[in-house]
Amino acid sequence: QVQLVESGGGLVQPGGSLRLSCVVSGSIFSIDAMGWYCQAPGKQRELVAVIFSGGGTSHADSVKGRFTISRDNAKNTMYLQMNNLKPEDTAVYYCYALVAGRSYWGQGTQVTVSS
Q1: What is the pLDDT of residues 93-111, one digit of tens each?
Q2: Residue 111: which H helix or E strand, with range?
Q3: Torsions phi, psi of 84, nearest 5?
Q4: Distance (Å, whole) CA 42 – CA 1
């Protein structure tokens, strides 16, 4: 069993920054990939960024140059550094892990970008 716990969401003004964290616990010996998804009201959940077991990353076009995904294996923690936030980034952000072919999700953390 794998557990994911996100933190770091909140209210920020346009142009501001936030860093989301996702702590992974449980049977994590075979994490194939981890990522962040977001879901805005009335919209489908969509991929924001992913980091693979080898360290390679990929970011959605809408966040390239503004968001950066990273992980600290020693702390079993994944991060999403979010800079130059825009109102359209407002959503619930979910942490995701693919472990031995199974998908796991965190509970989500709300990010609101508003003046």
Answers
A1: 999 999 888 999 999 999 9
A2: strand 109-113
A3: 50, 50
A4: 31
